[in-house]
Amino acid sequence: MTPERSERLTNVLEKRQPGLTVVLENVSDPHNISAVMRTCDAVGIQDIYILNTQIALHERWSAKTSSSAAKWLTVHQFQDAAECFAALRTKFAKIYTTHLSSDAVGLYELDLREPTALVFGNEHSGVSDDIIAMADGNFIIPQVGIIKSLNISVACAVTVYEAFRQKTLAGHYSSPNLSPDALQILKTDWGFKEE
């Protein structure tokens, strides 16, 4: 690895945000998953969770859409919702679903500076009732158009960039956030030579 490559990857690792993640529930289109991965990488999300309770586990992502983002992310796949949420609860204080309901709050009302998991549902049916019941709340992305829905990858991008804005203002990108152990694991995965 060249010194320039090492410096670039180190700079990326220093901006990773372990207090923010995305959960995709039964998202069927690999292109949507790949687009989400690319956006997650762009804002410093390292871990993403893919929950497939109704469809088979995904075996590949679209390299064309993700620009190979998958190789830089840690992807956790689950087929059991309770197991997935148990894993999330060990790292995240809040779990929010994006769901149009009477108790949903607007995206810009959420405090995304605290450790937060954001759940996005299936392209056709959205987040399931079971997952909504397990979450801490629901949010919607404010819209003034007629259709009142966005493609999942677009909805995710809008949401995580609001988190990026909040976390930037709070100084979360000013210093490294990964634990030394997590940092070493990623350095090994990313091909850093032993120091």
Explained architecture:
- With 195 residues, the chain is an alpha/beta fold.
- It has a single domain, classed as Alpha/beta knot (3-Layer(aba) Sandwich).
- The protein contains 7 helices and 7 strands.
- A 7-stranded parallel sheet has the order 3-2-1-6-4-7-5, sandwiched between helices.
- Helix 2 links the parallel strand 1 (20-25) and strand 2 (47-51).
- Helix 2 packs parallel to helix 6 (152-169).
Short description, anyone?
By secondary structure, the chain is an alpha/beta fold. Helices cover 37% and strands 16% of the residues.
Write the layout of secondary structure elements.
Layout: H1 3-14, E1 20-25, H2 30-43, E2 47-51, H3 63-66, E3 74-78, H4 81-89, E4 94-98, E5 105-106, E6 116-120, H5 129-134, E7 137-140, H6 152-169, H7 180-189
Parallel strand pairs: 1-2, 1-6, 2-3, 4-6, 4-7, 5-7
Helix pairs in contact: 2-6
Strand % is: 15-25%
DSSP E strands, number: 7
Rounded to an integer, what's the Rg over CA atoms? Answer: 17 Å
Helix % is 25-40%
Indicate the CATH class. Answer: Alpha Beta
Task: State the strand order across the main sheet.
Answer: 3-2-1-6-4-7-5
Could you name the CATH homologous superfamily? SPOUT methyltransferase, trefoil knot domain
- Average pLDDT works out at 91
Q: Given the structure, what is the number of helices? A: 7
What CATH calls the topology is Alpha/beta knot
Tags for this model:
single chain; alpha/beta; seven-stranded parallel β-sheet; Alpha/beta knot; 195 residues
